[in-house]
Queue: 3 jobs
Job 1
Amino acid sequence: MHTLPPHSVGPVAPPDGPSAPGRLPPLCLGRASDFRNIAHFDLDAFFASVECLKNPRLKGKPLIVGGSGDRGIVASCSYEARKFGIHSAMPIHLARRLCPEAIIIRGDMESYSKHSHIVTEIIEANVPVFEKASIDEFYVDLSGMDKFFGCSLFARELKARVMKESGLPVSYGLASNKLISKVATGEVKPNGQLEIPFGNEKNFLAPLSISRLPGIGKETAYKLIRRGVETIRVLSEIPVEMLATMLGRPGIELWQKANGLDESPIIPWREQKSISTERTFDTDTINLGFLHAELVRMTESIGFELRKQDRLTGCLTVKLRYSNFDTVARQKTIDYTNADHILLRTAQEIFDKLYDRRMLIRLLGIRFTRLVPGNYQIKLYEDTQEVIRLYQSIDSIKRRFGEGALFRAVGTRLRP
């Protein structure tokens, strides 16, 4: 079983001829490798980097992308701002105290989505299989490349191509699985690269803080640190049965991560155009209270699905079918979001304008389009930390106990 070479051989043309100009040679199919080679590419301080690309005068300055009011939060910040202790999800008023000279920009999700698509197209044009994990990070499967073009050389050239064609800085980690490659990327940001040879996963993780492991929240970290578990090395030495007793099933997953084990596959990226749901009623109705309750229930349901996929929507459509089978729909463009209180308010506004015949309704539907990668805290710049924590808690409960475990009371209203 061989490991990643420190310097891979040069490019080799595929059997059917040389690669097309301006394009990295495609992956060649050979015998299955003894291990995988997974590269994790992460755009550095993405929102802040896009703002610097749009306005070069911001480069090298402490820059904060977030809410302008004191109750807003930091969505992203430049590495110059991070030197002052500023980080994502920090209240703006605290960030101002830490760095009074910081430049604060409200941000433009549409612009960030556009640049994310640019990078996605660059990666898509050069690799056959990749996973877009979020608006600014990608996993690329390079398994088998060590026998052909070379994993190290391919990853370095792809990094250079992304930086040249998008103008955005990017870091990457290359390892035998997604977990290690992601942690490696985090250790070398900004504008870095790190390769962890197969077999060295545990040695790489051992000295790192447990907070470096993806998926460890504050509550879990607190439980472990109280018991003297501060490094991944100590965590990996705890019997898996003990962690399972302490943390339940997440304890087993945590033990696997601490030991560098991760078999999760690369999920090929396919751009989803919309998320929608609709319901045809057993009996046509004109009961507005019931229709409102159904609209709330459906909007909450696909809003939760939106957040599970780490996506935002920029357009809502409400659809009605009357008892005579006439079907009408109306849409509204909004600032990118996945927050229920905004989606519900918008859906109700559309419905109120759409339902103008006062006829019996046969079908009600709602659809989210203009989807972009992203999550709650990076968009709602003017919201407070309390609101963000509320949504995080709601989604945590739904993921653990099911979507029906928590919902708005108005969504349960039944037709008389």
Job 2
Amino acid sequence: MTIARKVRAYFAPVERTSNTPTVFDPAKDFDLENPPAPWMAAGEVREFKRESATKYGAMTSGLKGAASGQFRAGMEARISFNFCAWGKLQMAIAGGSQHMNVLAEDGNATGAASGGAALAPVAVLAGSSETELILGVGAVDAFDAGDMVAVDVDYAQQTGYIGAPIAAAYVKDPADVKRDRDYLRRVSFNVAKVREKTATSLLLETPLAGGAPVTGASVQKVVGFVDRESGSFFQEWSGVFVIEAEEGGRVCFYYPRLQACAPGAEREFALDNFSMHTLHAECVALPVKDELDGETVVCFRSWLP
């Protein structure tokens, strides 16, 4: 029996073109407070539930058709859980489809459900890092400490999965993308809060998920996040769920490939004079081959005493 206070969730990108997950090695140190990149903490989850829909069949032999062995068919596994915190990562996984950064708009912009025409981006200068954006004298005046910002390059009519290293959307036809200059910054996971600023730089509270800005990247202010029910894109992540036992040790559930498989939903829990609204997520586990012996699996469960 394992007694625990909570389940913690961590997610990392899957390379979508090759379906390559981020590896979780139970033999390596995994700091729950500061997980190793590219793993990102998503906080506590509640009502964590694992379900298997894999079918089991029997091989029979003899005149009486006695079972002589078993086989697995129709492999399928699903998990569901509720995020206790709201944020970009949590909303993206719980929402399932593209997740948008709501960019600060020009005062004359026409309204739009996913955000209207945005204020012009500010170029990020050479020498910037994942925690410092060098913009130059005067350019930093467009931002203040406490602002959320998105950092990425201009959209240049790319097709297929866009966003690196985290695929944030899939574009079939560039003609479908309106206000195309800012589209990558609208969907990018390179989002962070400005902790403070200097005369020339923005210092970020947390490192950008995609690392140091690439050449040609620009920054725009983010005023919120929005997701949409339905759409053609499916979020896919590697996931680790950790149960910390009160008696010591950890139980870890590692899912190399998780795809959201349900539309965005919330769960309401009654509290004294209040109610708590959590993000409900449901994911299907996609199979991978274990390099150890070539077996096809969907989850690795480890106990670390």
Job 3
Amino acid sequence: MQVFDTAALPVTDRADAVSVAMREATLSTHLVHHDPAEVWLRIEEHHLGNVELTHVVTSGMDTTRTRRQTAADNAQVIALSMRMVGGSVLERYGEQHRTTPAAVNLVELTEPYRSRIARGTDGWSVKIPLDELALPDGVIRMAWPRVPSSPVHAVFAHHLRSLARQVPRLEGGRSSALLGTATVALARALICSAAEDPRSMGEAMADSLLLRVQAYIRAHLTEPGLSPERIAAEHHISVRQLYKTFAAADLRLEQWIIALRLEGARQELARPQSANRTIAAVARHWGFSNPSHFTLRFREAYGMTPREWQTLEAHHL
């Protein structure tokens, strides 16, 4: 992980340091601070294989990337970003696009752009090399203003939020590279579906099916009606295809869901605020209608009963 933070710099040096750091992070060539007296920036960079995951917290500013700069550095990269706090206005191809918190925004860094961050913002982004996406010419330009309306938008946004929450445990090793590969597959499906490009959409959606289904399951994990039939219908596939998709990844659908629910229940039981909740209530919340069955599965997974785990964690506080 690489970190840049103006908190470690004298106030008089921050504006220049921010300009240099933002040029490296966003490939912009010109930066204007809205309030030179209030300048701050924190950048964290993490690498997931060939994908760069970046967290940026910054004061208000305008950034510009010119045609001359794109020709000079030839950066074959796109960025998919999401503001957690604050918004911005992005201008490309003579059009303006306003971003809002929780919406994924696409920037093709091979092309000029202008961005205005009206107030301080906090956001995460992934930078992906174009050769990793392997998209036909023109697809990104068609997609960029329509990304928030893509049927894959919610899945990719959930994926990016998950990366943001788990990033301290993700960087390095084989699992990190696999997450980078998964991010590329979801990004490709997001862009192709937004562009409505029939040449590439079918292949991109097929390649990302397992990832999209898994993201959907995680987002609806506590809902009692999360059945194979519902999951299949939401993704316009048959139940048989759903099972085959998981089997191809050496996974069993029901067992995978149960494992996620057990882990969710285990984490909830460890929280101090859950001390007064009954085991049955926690079990129901995580989709187990039978408390005895929940206790049995919990013991099989973790070697102790839910009550024993809750008591053990309470003593650690």
